[in-house]
């Protein structure tokens, strides 16, 4: 009987793929793979043609394939454990930000308890004029603030919660938009939220997310500054 080097593990085996699936859809353990391999090898040796016995090279080749599959499965398990440990560590570290004030990309302003709402601008180049417009939930401009000329860099501002007529507006969520010019041309400005961390959400797919007072979710890597 002629035997090729892949006959023991079979045409549907895991000799060329990192993980082996059972019929139920679950992944076989390295020990289960080894047991199945040895059972097939013993059965093949018992039923081989005495006149054409399986040579040592074929057995060695199949043993090497088994070791490769087992090694890959062990590596996958190790990497999964490392990923789980990293995610858990990230969550623990993120809890230290609860109650802290952070700066992230965004354009939200939160009025609460009569306190001023803070925001920031990341000016990409020196500007001649910068104007901040505060908008209510309906998208209507309720206050316009002239910030004058600004140098390149990050600049904070504070809104006292009043409209252009000096009336105090109710607590809630507002947004802001920025217009800037330099040498008569429109200048690029990124808007930034200054908000507090009020909660933490652990997502197994995307990792830990910080919940902010502005009602947004941000990753730790999105934080520009911590106060």
From TrEMBL:
Residues 1-12 have a biased composition (Polar residues). The keyword Oxidoreductase does not apply. Residues 106-183 form the FlgD/Vpr Ig-like domain. Residues 13-30 have a biased composition (Low complexity). Keywords: Bacterial flagellum biogenesis. Residues 1-31 are annotated as: Disordered. The keyword Repeat does not apply. InterPro entries: FlgD (IPR005648), FlgD/Vpr_Ig-like (IPR025965). Required for flagellar hook formation. May act as a scaffolding protein. Belongs to the FlgD family. This is Basal-body rod modification protein FlgD. It comes from Limnobacter litoralis. The lineage of its organism: Bacteria, Pseudomonadati, Pseudomonadota, Betaproteobacteria, Burkholderiales. The gene is flgD.
